[in-house]
């Protein structure tokens, strides 16, 4: 009876979970406001809006140089919203590259914030691969079909992982106005939960870069990194005013010794360098139960000669030696007193150290004016204008799902867009995970009760017998 009642409860619980698994219909919601780019993947736009690269990657074997990784616009495998499509990286161990033009280029000279936001769902736990975006520089020769790893970008942003190393990139490319050289500058490492790569949920990645050069990096609307373009990038955007003269050499006569031995010091007459550090303890007494005549090792009395022992080939058999049990309490063999520190020991005499009258300090090479030096007090305005967004990725894990890209100048617009889309999706995913956990717990309880009923039935049979 007890088992039937439990089964009924479980069936009701499973029915309730199944009923509640009816998917909410996806509804595209976009707040009022302007954006430079907004992509929700309402239909398959590959080849129309999103252009796959036909280029080859430089510096790799011909067999893997092509960007031949497959892309698709489809729902995620366990989507909580019916009809919610996204861009999916479908292949593993292949190079992928796809990009799309912005509605209008983003120009930093307008001195308005840059907001980059998008969703990523690792449908399979990520082992090694990236899910970052590149904001492609607005060049006259920009050809999306030739997008590859060397294509110029303004900013790179997003998550990346390989093995135990987790990264959340924010990389800025900046042109030195003196030399014309372009260099990458990396934000300091962010501290964020590694579960974003393995929990199978949709996560939201946001970058906010302000005209005052401050930036914030967020995951799921929580800040995980912040800083300034002026102070928190490596290497710094503004190079040092002076650099070390690599040709400067320390003079041979340069004296860096702060202390030197006192040449006037004399070893004291009573200093005996021959005294040993340790000496026998003259006050030690041999223990009464110490037996100097007893050997420390004796033949094992319980040892037995092997049956296959051949005297002619193996020699005369002797039992193995073991510690003499008589030596356990006291000791055996010749007794010697233990060693102690020698109170007369002084060691080798050395003269005391005194201030060096010729000390010149620690030598350092001279500094020269840096020929590449410049100072840009507002590097935000000098960032490369960009006109496309691209995904150029290698991954050992397939089925990475991207959705709801936003590039805008108003952080509030991106926040409201996330509220209407990612927050809804995330809430449904968390509710489903909680119900699955609850259902699994009830099934475990059922297994335990089945075992109890089986034990009770066995006891009843025994009693009847």
Distance between the termini: 22 Å
Specify the overall morphology: flat
- Major sheet: 9 strands, antiparallel
What oligomerization state is this entry in? Answer: single chain
What ranges have pLDDT less than 50 throughout 5 or more consecutive residues?
A: 3-20
From the alpha-carbon coordinates, what is the Rg to the nearest angstrom?
38 Å
Strand fraction band? 25-35%
Q: What class do helices, strands and sheet pairing give? A: alpha+beta
Number of continuous helical runs:
5
Mean pLDDT: 91
- Work out the helicity level: 10-25%
Count of β-strands: 29
How would you describe what is shown here?
Helix 1 packs antiparallel against helix 5. The protein has helices at residues 2-20, 62-65, 311-314, 411-420, 422-464, and strands at residues 24-25, 37-39, 50-52, 71-74, 81-82, 86-89, 94-106, 114-122, 128-130, 133-137, 153-162, 165-175, 182-187, 202-209, 214-219, 222-228, 233-234, 242-244, 259-261, 278-280, 290-291, 297-299, 321-323, 331-332, 339-341, 353-355, 367-369, 386-395, 400-408. Strands 3, 7, 9, 10, 11, 12, 13, 17 and 28 form a nine-stranded antiparallel sheet that branches. Strands 2, 4, 6, 8, 14, 15, 16 and 29 form an eight-stranded antiparallel sheet that branches. It is α+β, with helices and mostly antiparallel strands and 465 residues long. The longest helix is centred in the last third of the chain and has 43 residues, at 422-464. The chain is built from five helices and 29 strands. Mean pLDDT is 91; it is low at 3-20.
